[in-house]
Automatic annotation (TrEMBL), chain A:
Naturally occurring in which organism (per UniProt): Marinobacter daepoensis
Domain UPF0033: 11-35
Pfam families attached to this UniProt entry: TusA (PF01206)
Protein name, per record: Sulfurtransferase-like selenium metabolism protein YedF
SUPFAM superfamilies in alphabetical order: SirA-like
PROSITE patterns (alphabetical): UPF0033
Gene designation: yedF
Entry similarity comment: Belongs to the sulfur carrier protein TusA family.
Top-level lineage group: Bacteria
Membrane-traversing stretches: none
From TrEMBL, chain B:
Highest taxon, organism lineage: Bacteria
Gene: yedE
Listed name of the protein: Selenium metabolism membrane protein YedE/FdhT
PANTHER family documented for this protein: INNER MEMBRANE PROTEIN YEDE, SULPHUR TRANSPORT DOMAIN-CONTAINING PROTEIN
Family: Belongs to the TsuA/YedE (TC 9.B.102) family.
Keyword Glycosyltransferase: no
Transmembrane feature ranges: 12-36, 77-96, 108-133, 139-158, 190-207, 213-228, 249-274, 280-302, 314-335, 360-379
Species lineage: Bacteria, Pseudomonadati, Pseudomonadota, Gammaproteobacteria, Pseudomonadales
Main localization of the protein described in the UniProt heading: membrane
Natural source organism: Marinobacter daepoensis
Keywords: Cell inner membrane, Cell membrane, Membrane, Transmembrane, Transmembrane helix, Transport
Its membrane topology: Multi-pass membrane protein
Subcellular location: Cell inner membrane
Length: 79, 395
């Protein structure tokens, strides 16, 4: 397990339905400096898959494995 | 065994192939297809009747047969079975949660989009099921027009979604935020199990009392509901996400599912001599498909996808559902009363590929068309990522 690093920014998307979690996540990452860490909190089941997959497909890396927290997921993505 | 089935979502390819095979089987058993919006239109008619409006003279209701109540129609049980199957899986996987959009504008977008999608689907005589996923395997040419039109509609929908005033701004805050507190007592799976047992008992009752068609509708509806929820099957995202972020997973899975369904349906038609279900291909198909594509992206979900999302507790899809029924009912009214039939439908005709190009041509042509769709999907994905790499920003 990687050492847990505090996120630089958090995108709280609880309640938002697809496709907005993906759009918001990609736009937030786009506006951040490389190496900064974004935490995404989302509870739209569709986004559990498309947010991490599209972040990776767009060239970003997951800083640590996603955390399932009840009915929501927490993602940690490096810009 | 229990964990992978209930805790993880299933592979969309497997889910859509299973849905395609089941819909072919359902057709073989009943001579009808897996569809939902026709029943939404009848629901609207029933509500109007309760309110004292006489809809018996409306041509559209004569065409789609508004008889009995939703509880006495196999099509009705397909819809309720889907809701219950989805709810069951949501509860068994402990994933129900009331989810309220942060942006209040989503409710308006959902409602308006729902109306447009409901209206468009019924104008074209089928949504992404009867005019798409189960329409193509019936070799009904109207579904070919519908796919193209829906693609165009979603393209403009995706453009709209990108507008700042439409999508709104998210709440980006500095630093970390803690997740919600998680309840220690887990009761959802027990509720899900109870619903499953009661519903299966009810299906058994339908079969044992000679109401086999209702039982089949209830059973297949349940299976479709389970599949769309576990596979997170989203027809809206299939086109939209290709345009938005170059995502191709759902589009490819749907094409594969339709190919499997086409082959099995072809066998059913040839072996049992069942007549394929053909709808009118006309200007209405083109216009309806376009409106449908635009509406589902505005609403963030189509008539099928909204069903399991509503069961997950995504409140946004309540106005979408109501909008779908209103849109479908408005179309039913306008069909003869506003001259829609004369203007857009009358000149069309029912074209089935089996009649026009023969059985072999129909299946080969369908598979070739699906192959082209698949290739276009892959091309769009590659093209998107090449542009993204060049521009270094979201296309």
């Amino acid at each position: 397990m990687e050492s847990v690093r505090e996120a630089d920014f958090t995108l709280d998307l609880r309640g938002e339905s697809c496709p907005y979690p993906v759009i918001y996540t990609l736009e937030a990452l786009d506006g951040m400096k490389p190496g900064e860490l974004l935490q995404v909190i989302t509870d739209c089941p569709g986004s559990f898959r498309n947010v991490p997959e599209e972040a990776v497909a767009h060239g970003y890396t997951l800083a640590r494995s996603p955390v399932k927290n009840g009915q929501e997921y927490l993602f940690y993505i490096l810009a | 065994m229990v964990k992978p089935v209930f805790q993880r979502y299933w592979n969309p390819y497997i889910v859509l192939v299973a849905a395609g095979l089941l819909s072919a089987l359902y057709f073989g058993l009943t001579g009808t297809v897996w569809a939902v919006t026709g029943e939404f239109t009848r629901l609207g008619g029933e509500v109007l009747q309760v309110l004292g409006v006489d809809v018996s003279g409306w041509q559209y209701y004569q065409m789609i047969k508004l008889e009995g109540s939703t509880w006495s129609r196999p099509d009705g049980w397909i819809v309720w079975g889907m809701f219950i199957g989805a709810l069951m899986m949501v509860l068994l996987s402990n994933s129900f949660k009331i989810r309220l959009p942060q942006h209040k504008r989503r409710y308006v977008q959902g409602f308006v989009g729902g109306i447009i999608a409901g209206f468009g689907a019924r104008l074209a005589l089928g949504c992404n099921l009867a005019a798409f996923f189960t329409g193509v395997p019936q070799f009904s040419f109207h579904s070919w027009i519908f796919i193209v039109a829906t693609g165009v509609g979603t393209f403009f929908g995706a453009k709209l979604t990108r507008m700042p005033w439409w999508k709104g701004k998210p709440t980006l805050v500095r630093g970390a935020v803690r997740g919600s507190d998680v309840k220690v007592r887990v009761i959802q799976p027990y509720l899900g199990a109870v619903i499953a047992l009661v519903y299966l008992g009810f299906v058994g009752y339908l079969f044992s009392t000679g109401q086999g068609l209702l039982g089949l509708g209830a059973l297949f509806g349940l299976a479709f509901g389970i599949l769309i929820e576990r596979g997170q099957v989203c027809f809206t995202s299939a086109f939209r996400d290709l345009f938005l972020v170059g995502r191709s997973l759902m589009a490819k899975a749907i094409v594969i599912g339709m190919a499997a369904s086409s082959v099995i349906t072809f066998v059913v038609i040839s072996v049992y001599g069942l007549p394929p279900i053909t709808q009118v291909a006309a200007l209405s198909t083109l216009v309806g498909g376009g409106l449908f594509g635009l509406g589902i992206v505005m609403a963030s979900g189509c008539e099928t996808g909204m069903m399991y999302r509503l069961m997950e507790g995504q409140v946004l899809f309540l106005p979408v559902f109501v909008g779908n029924v209103i849109g479908a009912t408005v179309l039913a009214y306008g069909w003869d009363n506003l001259g829609i039939y004369d203007a857009l439908v009358k000149s069309g005709e029912k074209i089935n590929l089996i009649d026009t190009v023969g059985p072999l041509g129909a299946i080969l042509g369908t598979l070739a068309m699906l192959g082209i769709l698949y290739a276009l999907t892959v091309y769009r994905e590659k093209n998107y990522h090449r542009n993204f790499g060049l521009k270094g920003g979201i296309a």
